[in-house]
Amino acid sequence: MSASPIGPELQRLIDLLAKMPGLGPRSAKRAALYLLKKREPVMRPLAFALDDAANKVTGCSICGNWDSMDPCAVCADETRQSGVLCVVQDVADLWALERAGAHKGRYHVLGGLLSPLDGVGPDDLDIGGLIARAKEDTITEVVLALAATVDGQTTAHYLTEHLETSNVSVTRLSQGVPVGGELDYLDEGTLSAAMKARRPV
Amino acid sequence: MSASPIGPELQRLIDLLAKMPGLGPRSAKRAALYLLKKREPVMRPLAFALDDAANKVTGCSICGNWDSMDPCAVCADETRQSGVLCVVQDVADLWALERAGAHKGRYHVLGGLLSPLDGVGPDDLDIGGLIARAKEDTITEVVLALAATVDGQTTAHYLTEHLETSNVSVTRLSQGVPVGGELDYLDEGTLSAAMKARRPV
Question: Model's pTM, two decimal places?
Answer without folding.
Answer: 0.79
